[in-house]
Amino acid sequence: MGLGSGSGSAETSSLMSEFLRKTGGSAVVDGGLSTELERHGADLNDPLWSAKCLFTSPHLIREVHLDYLEAGADIIISASYQATIQGFQAKGFSREEGETLLRRSVEIASEARDNYYERCVECSSNGTGDGRILKHRPILVAASVGSYGAYLADGSEYSGNYGDAITLETLKDFHRRRVQVLAESGADLIAFETVPNKLEAQAFADILEEEDIKIPAWFSFNSKDGVNVVSGDSILECASIAESCKKVVAVGINCTPPRFIHGLILSIKKVSTKPIVIYPNSGESYDAEQKEWVQHTGVSDEDFVSYVDRWCEAGASLVGGCCRTTPQTIKAIYRTLSTRSAAALFQ
Ligand SMILES: [Zn+2]
């Protein structure tokens, strides 16, 4: 991107504001990856979860990214949430192979973006042929970084309880190399997702500064009560850590039931002026012991989307979906945001 390389922190800090200026003030983030991979036939029964597909079926990941772009997503998130060098090593890969797989996650997303632009050129109407949204527009690739709990694959990213043995330094050592590799992978930004406590938020902020990471990031926390993040740490404290890091260009909430989002946006706004990113789950409850989503406990796509106007009015500018949301959810968000920006033009 940008004019020339090495232009440093000015360009890093303006990436999201520039992007949002081009998109008219709001943008669509993609939706759940793993449910869609399974729908395409992938077997995710593995501690690496969706990251397993990086070496078993990368073409399926690319298809899902394309599905989301054709549903209107302006930002796609790489399949590296549960991809860690340590996790790949536990599978018998070397350190170098693990790093290659991390880079591969971003390359696959970038390939999907290239394929999408080709399809836009082929579709001369520049419109929405057969329900697909084929419209040339700025698209960002975000490299996903899941929490330490996601690597443990024991559901602890939903408790935020890592035990006393885990310190700030442990977390920094765990994440450092992975963040460095993803930052050099061609991604536009890093999405630190499902951050369950303030200790890990601080670890990410420290890594961004200490390692002089050249691309910006967003911090996205998760909550199960609409007041605090899942560990019980205050959302105000967590968002403040994001606010004070220059390299963080958006802060928000993901993998949290839709009904909690509005209040959390208002809380974040008390301590942050950065763009707010929101990508809730479908509202279904997750059974950490069974490692599966409990069917029929969530909200429909229509209900999900009925929240979107309220979230935008409260201050969200990036909206998408997390677990159990689909391209249908994202298409509905796209329509809502398009209607809003068209209405704003006529005001
Ligand atoms: Zn999720």
UniProtKB/TrEMBL annotation:
Source species: Carpinus fangiana
Pfam families documented for this protein: S-methyl_trans
Residue ranges occupied by any Hcy-binding domain in the UniProt entry: 15-337
Transmembrane stretches, start-end: none
UniProt-recorded name of the protein: Hcy-binding domain-containing protein
Family annotation (NCBIfam families): PRK09485.1
Single GO biological process annotation from the record: S-methylmethionine cycle
MF terms in GO: S-adenosylmethionine-homocysteine S-methyltransferase activity; zinc ion binding
Residue sites binding Zn(2+) per the record: 255, 322-323
Keywords assigned: Metal-binding, Methyltransferase, Transferase, Zinc
Superkingdom, taxonomy of origin: Eukaryota
Cofactor(s) for this UniProt protein: Zn(2+)
